[in-house]
Amino acid sequence: xxxxxxxxxxxxxxxxxxxxxxxxxxxxxxxxxxxxxxxxxxxxxxxxxxxxxxxxxxxxxxxxxxxxxxxxxxxxxxxxxxxxxxxxxxxxxxxxxxxxxxxxxxxxxxxxxxxxxxxxxxxxxxxxxxxxxxxxxxxxxxxxxxxxxxxxxxxxxxxxxxxxxxxxxxxxxxxx
Length: 176
Prior knowledge:
Layout: E1 7-12, H1 18-28, E2 32-37, H2 44-57, E3 62-65, H3 70-75, E4 83-88, H4 90-99, H5 104-117, E5 122-127, H6 138-157, E6 160-165, E7 168-173
Parallel strand pairs: 1-5, 1-6, 2-3, 2-4, 4-5
Antiparallel strand pairs: 6-7
């Protein structure tokens, strides 16, 4: 049984191993694992991906779908025993917020407040989007900027920040 800090932030590029690392940490914690998923199944490929991820996690996991109200989903995880919350992923959540024309700054503040208020350890997973070139179109640039601002806020609030590179965890902000 491994102890987790109140808030862990894991980010990395596509297929860097960030979700697998978060899942391993959650399962090793000894708490009841709760996945809060932000993905929406708009096409067959995404439906297959979601089904594959559910199968990989297994029956021990409770899954909550929260494409928009991520803070509310965190707040609704019952305090009826030790749980660990894994959120996958923040970049899809930012996309959902943008498409729904929501106030991302207010939603980000609500997310951090929910993470602080829950009695359960939280692991937030996100895609690092700032390592690439500047996107050509305004929507993509706005997405990159919104995700980057959210990442900075989450990293500042997190007790531990891990950057995944080629399946290897690099501790960016160690537990203090």
